[in-house]
């Protein structure tokens, strides 16, 4: 295992819970090399970079996912954002800001996902 992989695993443990870790590991059951790249690069190199804290990185990630309409990953990152210190109100404000730039349909989908997480701590979509 590379140092980047170990860094990535450590960051994942900071931003997610056991369910999130299991979701990530399930990718490895399908495509181990993809999992290694995702953890090493995405978390071990990008999330580990200096100058932005994990809270700010989750703001950027949530914004990017909403504007792309990549809702499969949004629940994971909303939960991560809560774990690293964003409040529900801040997450809702991010969604409102995205509505102005990417449209209300995408923002409305994001509100639904966030609402489910805020209400019961979980969201049914569990893809990477």
TrEMBL record:
User: Record's superkingdom?
Assistant: Bacteria
**Mind telling me which Gene3D superfamilies this protein's record contains?**
AhpD-like
One MF annotation (Gene Ontology) recorded for this entry = peroxiredoxin activity
List the Pfam families hit by this protein, alphabetically.
CMD (PF02627)
Q: Where is the Carboxymuconolactone decarboxylase-like domain?
A: 32-114
Which InterPro entries does its entry note? 4CMD/NDH-1_regulator, AhpD-like, CMD-like
Matches recorded under PANTHER family: 4-CARBOXYMUCONOLACTONE DECARBOXYLASE FAMILY PROTEIN, GAMMA-CARBOXYMUCONOLACTONE DECARBOXYLASE
Q: What is this protein called?
A: Carboxymuconolactone decarboxylase
Organism lineage string: Bacteria, Bacillati, Bacillota, Clostridia, Eubacteriales
């Amino acid at each position: 295992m590379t140092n980047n992989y170990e860094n990535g695993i450590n960051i994942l443990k900071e931003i997610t819970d056991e369910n999130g870790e299991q979701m990530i590991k399930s990718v490895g059951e399908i495509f181990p090399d993809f999992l290694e790249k995702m953890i090493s690069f995405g978390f071990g190199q990008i999330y580990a970079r200096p100058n932005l804290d994990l809270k700010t990185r989750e703001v950027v990630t949530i914004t990017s996912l909403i504007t792309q309409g990549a809702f499969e990953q949004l629940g994971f990152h909303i939960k991560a954002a809560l774990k690293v210190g964003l409040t529900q109100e801040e997450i809702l404000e991010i969604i409102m800001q995205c509505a102005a730039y990417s449209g209300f349909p995408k923002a409305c989908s994001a509100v639904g996902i966030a609402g489910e997480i805020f209400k019961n701590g979980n969201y049914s979509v569990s893809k990477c």
